[in-house]
Amino acid sequence: MENNIFDDSQDIQIIDVEESIKTSYLDYSMSVIIGRALPDARDGLKPVHRRILYAMNDLGVGSRSPYKKSARIVGDVIGKYHPHGDTAVYDALVRMAQSFSMRVPTVDGQGNFGSIDGDSAAAMRYTEARMTLLAEELLKDLDKDTVDFIPNYDESMHEPDVLPARVPNLLLNGSSGIAVGMATNIPPHSLDELVDGLLMLLENKDITLEELMTVIKGPDFPTAGIIFGKKGIIDAYRTGRGRIKMRAKTHIEKKANKDIIVIDELPYQTNKATLIEKIAELVKDKQIEGISEVRDESDREGIRVVIELKRDAMSDIVLNNLFKSTVMEATFGVIMLAIDNKEPKVFSLIELLKLFLRHRKTVIIRRTIYELQKARARAHILEGLKIALDNIDDVIELIKSSADTTVAREGLMAKFGLSELQSNAILDMRLSRLTGLEREKIENELKEILAEIQRLDAILKSEDLIEGIIKDELLEVKSKFKCPRITEIIDDYDDINIEDLIPNESMVVTITHRGYIKRVPSKTYEKQKRGGKGKVAVTTYDDDFIESFFICDTHDTLMFVTDRGQLYWLKVYKIPEGSRTAKGKAVVNLVELQPDEKIMAIIPTNDFDENKSLAFFTKNGIVKRTNLSEYSNIRTVGIRAINLDDDDEVVTATIVTQDIKSLFVVTKKGMCIKFEVEDAREIGRVSRGVTGIRFKEEGDFVVGAAVLRDDEQEVLSVANKGIGKRTTADEYRLQKRGGKGVICMKLTSRTGDLVGIVVVDEEMDLMALTSSGKMIRVDMQSIRKAGRNTSGVKVVDVDGEEVVNIAICPKIESSDETESDNSLLGEENE
């Protein structure tokens, strides 16, 4: 081509852009992975940490040396080995000196090196540093050809590729880092436990993880705290990945009838100041109730964060809410990723320990070879000196007659069969070495050197001797650094059956209009005469009252059905137990309700049998029945239990067993309908249901429902002015669902509107709740039976109040003394 713009004499290479970018990015990725972000599995150090320690070693800043300015150390590191930003190098140096970041720090800092409150360290020109004893253990034998040296970044000097590391630093101090496409997060451990584990591994090469974990129980964080549960530890140790739940360590103190929660230890890497701010914010926003004051009383002796509670607050519930809402409970995601043979790899615990032992074996072999060569060289010299001393007159005569040093050297080599090194040593020998004492010293030294050579030679030929040296050095390290466990490991609810520790007792569970819940032992409420005033069941605000209460056992599961058709689960024993007059705790702290969502039914169950179903009754008369097994998959956030129309809401719900024959629904205006269970056939969980009752009067709505086994059962109806009656179920004729029903109770101005119904059981008592929070226990047998179209008798003396809910509960026999106490309480309540 005539207009060729390229010179044919030049070497032109065609490069594919896509391939070039791939290659360049891969080179960059590997540079970050190997050269910056990830630790070496042998010494547990990233390049920057290794270079800091090596530079400090060069400067002679040992554990017994005077401190040197951090700026000087950082300058040496940057100038000689690590051509990156000074801030990054100084930040690494600072972390190596922080006792709350490192299980055993490798840098001894003097000055402000930051705090657990998140305060940054002072500028490097103000702080000083030197190595710790542990750092010296990492560098020990570095000068004995124990590791390879590589050129530094400009090839003007050399630096170690890895440190000899007499301690398993990767597991001791842990490591964290983010590379390209991968990350590492290794927790710190107790040195005592690591050494015991390594010794156990040396004794048994085929050790199992279970056996190893009898000594290495889990991570040991420098901030102590609590590890909650062992499953994450086992996963991490077996696979290299796991999630470890950490908790703050607390204790409870008493002050003027109030509980005080004191935080003594924090989860690893938790910022104390940020935690306190978060707690204060949650209290201000009323997301956590019961806290009156939070203050930090920490000092040089340790952490002490004081959380003062209000007089009626329960410390265990507040504490659980703090764990749930703050970093007092945090998760450490373990990824045991490290570099081995220039490649990143995820290791199990046993693999990491074996790799460390292999590294130590290599170091000992190389050190032994170095010392053997040095001993042989010295023995060679001493043998020459001994020959010279044995022939001293001839040697002196030969040297005197030689013209110069070269001639003398050659003469010695020729006459006595010496090497050049031996000849030079003889020529350099001082006349004082010719004394008898000096001769003896040389002979003794030669004997010692020859014995040392024999010992070193035996080490290289024996695997057992090498392992014996490893054991001795590990025990020496353990005795030098006392490092017992400080992080407590406890079981969580997944590790043990918590119900085995809790007695199965009958409880009254109450919930107020404003959403306060509590449980109180049923025996607290003693039986009273019909028409009595009753005991105060709960202390409420002026605008609050008890909306519902239920009787269940502590081991039961409570299903919470809300007006919006959502269903939530909670074990009874997880509800805070309160006194008879305590107002309880906000249910939103136990169940994750939506804003303005109200609980309409609390249903206890001890199983989710497929032979049972869950029946829902709505305000607009809709009935829905779904197999109970569809609600067995418990979720914290709850599930949709029934689809509702826009103007409808759930009134109640109940479990239907195989012996149930009919469903019974009542309305506010005293109407009711009874129809067969099969009329409302089982349908799916996410569905609307079918019409159960149609309303005769405008403004009427469903207020209650029940399930009946047969027509011989009796239904107890109660109106809001305390009037009630017992009526046999066969007086209510069986109808098809969807009808307007029949009269359930004759309502008048004396009775008021119907509140609800319960199925009569003469082995049980009636519990009636008034709008002021009074709970009255009435013997079912004391309530008169009456026909369907009647009003009934006074069941509760409301004294100007209204009955807001009814339920049944087990009978409790009272002694005369107790009844006397009840009458006194009744008088007080009047």
Structure commentary:
The chain has 830 residues and is an alpha+beta fold. Strands 14-9-8-17 form a four-stranded mixed beta sheet. Strands 10-11-13-12 form a four-stranded antiparallel beta sheet, with helices on one face. A hairpin with a 3-residue loop joins strand 22 (557-562) and strand 23 (566-571). The longest helix has 42 residues, at 349-390. The model is unreliable at 527-537, 539-543 and 813-830 (pLDDT under 50).
Chart the SSEs and their pairings.
Layout: H1 17-37, H2 47-59, E1 68-69, H3 70-81, H4 86-97, E2 107-110, E3 128-131, H5 133-139, E4 149-151, E5 158-160, H6 169-173, E6 175-178, E7 183-186, H7 191-203, H8 209-212, E8 226-228, H9 231-239, E9 241-247, E10 249-255, E11 258-265, H10 272-284, E12 291-296, E13 305-309, H11 315-325, E14 329-335, E15 337-340, E16 343-346, H12 349-390, H13 392-401, H14 405-416, H15 420-428, H16 436-461, H17 463-480, E17 488-490, E18 506-512, E19 516-521, E20 535-536, E21 546-553, E22 557-562, E23 566-571, E24 585-586, E25 599-605, E26 613-618, E27 622-627, E28 639-640, E29 650-656, E30 662-667, E31 671-676, E32 690-691, E33 702-708, E34 714-719, E35 723-728, E36 742-743, E37 754-759, E38 764-770, E39 774-779, E40 793-794, E41 803-810, H18 816-829
Parallel strand pairs: 8-17
Antiparallel strand pairs: 1-3, 2-3, 4-5, 6-7, 8-9, 9-14, 10-11, 11-13, 12-13, 15-16, 18-19, 18-21, 19-24, 20-39, 22-23, 22-25, 23-28, 26-27, 26-29, 27-32, 30-31, 30-33, 31-36, 34-35, 34-37, 35-40, 38-39, 38-41
